[in-house]
Design a protein that fits this description.
alpha+beta, OB fold (Dihydrolipoamide Acetyltransferase, E2P), 17% helix
């Protein structure tokens, strides 16, 4: 057992330890000025995006779909779930990414009335709280992202991750008939 003199810490070291503990405790109780919001976190392979859970009726495993000849690349085809047909949109391509989501992930069935839409994502990671980042300038009306946010995984030494927040109305606009409002 070490002697009492060996266990003593210098006054400088003790002060440093107290300051570090105080700083960590203060960060724990820090109140953010931007309210967090629940978001359905989706993995698109090389990046993350988030959607409001209010627009999603169900999340189901990805499955076979029927291609639509002549459709835009982001419109993957027709998808069936629960006896209902959905227009299947590849979320990565609809957001302007170069590569489509590969199969084996998840499909988000949206609460849109007619036509019914579904979004294919690599994986749905779950419902998480994100901190929206205050935008420097407003997104263009045609941009399907309404902004960005950060997400803190509950893993030690994991830095916050950045993700795009999807505006469902703007995302669906190119796939709606021209006379139909975007009431997603």
């Amino acid at each position: 057992m070490p002697s009492a003199s060996a266990r003593r810490v210098s006054a400088e070291r003790a002060q440093h330890i107290l300051e570090e503990r105080t700083r960590r405790l203060a960060q724990r109780g820090a109140v953010s000025t931007v309210a967090s919001r629940p978001t359905l976190l989706c993995d698109l392979g090389s990046e993350l995006c988030g959607l409001s859970p209010a627009f999603v009726a169900r999340v189901v495993p990805d499955g076979p779909h029927a291609a639509l000849p002549g459709a835009p690349p982001a419109l993957a085809g027709l998808f069936a779930a629960g006896g209902q047909g959905y227009l299947l949109i590849d979320l990565a391509l609809a957001l302007g990414r170069a590569e489509a989501v590969t199969g084996g992930g998840h499909v988000l069935l949206l609460r849109h009335t007619a036509p019914r839409f579904a979004l294919r994502a690599g994986r749905v990671l779950g419902l998480v709280e994100v901190q929206p980042v205050t935008p420097g300038e407003a997104a263009p009306p045609a941009d399907p992202l309404e902004g960005h946010a950060t997400w803190h995984a509950n893993l030690p030494d994991q830095p916050p991750q950045s993700l795009g927040l999807v505006d469902i109305s703007r995302l669906l606009q190119p796939f709606l008939p021209s006379d139909q409002p975007t009431g997603a």
